């Protein structure tokens, strides 16, 4: 009887921990989406259009390209990701950030030169936008962004 009770308690603790982690991940995703929407939604209609996506992509690329050479290096992307998380009050994990950036570069770097050009960044952004646009209206709602980011983050793990 005590063994069964101990096992039930252990399983409950594991389930609670997993539920807390999932809730924490969803909260982080919501924070990231809210920050993205605030930056991208220039007409304040609570939707992100293709034009708003393209303008935000260009602005973010230019801001990240601190060397102004038209290409994003791993170091530039790590620095930008670290700053973005810090700005949202998160404590970035340097090892996880480097791993995430490596995976992003591998996904975006179509010419396999280890750098990301504006064209590669734009193509990846467009692909993520299109994949996230559940109702295919060429606009992203907050929920579509959350769902898309959740899928994207799962691929990054």
Summarize the structure in words.
This protein is mainly α and 157 residues long. The chain has one domain (26-156): Recoverin, domain 1, CATH 1.10.238. 72% of the residues lie in helices and 5% in strands. It contains six helices and four strands. The chain has helices at residues 2-40, 50-64, 74-87, 94-108, 118-132, 142-156, and strands at residues 48-49, 71-72, 116-117, 139-140. The strands form two sheets. Strands 1-4 form a two-stranded antiparallel sheet. Strands 2-3 form a two-stranded antiparallel ribbon. Helix 1 (2-40) packs across helix 6 (142-156). The longest helix has 39 residues, at 2-40. The chain is globular, with a radius of gyration of 19 Å.
Write a compact overview of the structure shown.
The chain is mainly α and 157 residues long.
